[in-house]
Amino acid sequence: MKKIVIIGGSDAGISAALRIHELAPGTQIRVLLADAYPNFSICGLPFFLSGETPDWRSLAHRTRQDIDGLGIALLENHRVIAIDPARKHVVAVPSAPNADQTPVQEKYDTVIIATGATSRIPNISGLERPNVFLLRWMEDGFRLKNYLDTAKPRSAVIIGSGYIGLEMADALTRRGLQVTLAGHAPTVLKTVDPEFGEAIAETLRTNGVTVVTGVGIQKISQGRDGMRVTGTPKFHIEADMVLVAVGAVPASGLAISVGAQVDQHGAICTNQRMETRVQHVFAAGDCVQTWHRLLQKPVYLPLGTTAHKQGRIAGENALGGSREFTGSLGTQVVKVFDTAIARTGLGAYEAELAGYAPRSTETITWDHKQYYPGAHPLRIRIVGDNKTGRLLGAQIIGHYTGEVAKRIDILSTAIYHSMQIDQLSDLDLSYTPPLSSPWDPVQIAAQAWTSDWHT
């Protein structure tokens, strides 16, 4: 009977295990994870911390009993310290505090590395101080939740203005804290165009968040009334707590130790079958590089949706399959208070760097027929290749009830299938006045792009 060992029990690891069980139920599947929270939605932590999702157990995609019931063997609270490809076994030690450190060996026919990523640690002095938090895993969330419940802080500084920073600014504001969001980029959310980032910044300010951009945080120290955060140029503020959310770093050390190649980001290099260059060793998820469908090259783009897909492919191919990961477009959406912002594909600057001849247009239209109550404006930015008319990217911002995620998915699907922008008008999209218009907003935006396009 074939035995497959999976290192990591989050999105990619469990997705791989489920696919293996689906295709070959008799396979021995052993999942080793460093904590006790298999298949939990880490993306849900901000909503647990805000109180919108009060029970942390509901963040589990599947319960431990669900996974056990499929015959997938979990070994929790064990950290893998070595892979021996010659003898085809892995060595793990207990990761729980004060546990007996007797090593555990697991033999394998194939191993899948799904170790995820860790929080990026910036070069800031004082990160070890009390009341300074990171947010990446469930234990991080519990530590922060305990502090919020017991210390009842009144103010917070969030360092980093990406997705986690934005969601946590929302979450902590909902809990009654005065929040300052500090980032080094000129605008928040640098994955979208500056004008859209400024729109999100205005949403934050409207909801009471102080937004500071273009600052480089250097030091966290004990101030008179709390933690003192200082940086350049001439930035200083005191708050009860500090959350550091400046991105992720691939957890690829184990893969490196076994001879796998990594890229300039430290992400594990794989082919599109999720194979490393080490025989019988696959890798998937936030620890690996991602094939970009438009750029036609690997990039580091850690996303939960991508991790699920890559894990499924790694699981299938670990059984001898030949499925390939066909690529990501970096499709993302985030909700900040009552505003949703989404993006897919390439921005105009990215497209130009990639050798396209990009042109972008912005359209403002209603998310549904204005005569039906509750209509909100949508801003839709379309990027196309001015030479070919091909759709290259899109960004949308609007009220979170305005189907922003659905509409970016339409555009992502169109990019995936190399559609021309004028072909969007041919799509048979649903319509009813409370939800859309006879021409959907994405079609209206596409028509605005094509109206002055000349081949």
The tally of beta strands, per DSSP, is 25
**Based on the structure, what is the oligomeric state of the protein chains?**
single chain
CATH architecture of the largest domain, by name, is: 3-Layer(bba) Sandwich
CATH class of the largest domain: Alpha Beta
What is the CATH third-level topology name of the largest domain?
FAD/NAD(P)-binding domain
Profile the largest sheet: 5 strands, parallel
Shape: globular
Radius of gyration: 23 Å
Number of H/I helices: 11
CATH superfamily of the largest domain: FAD/NAD(P)-binding domain
* Beginning-to-end CA distance, first to last residue: 60 Å
Estimated share of beta-strand residues: 25-35%
Average of the residue pLDDT scores: 96
In the residues, how many domains can be counted? 3
* Poorly predicted ranges: none
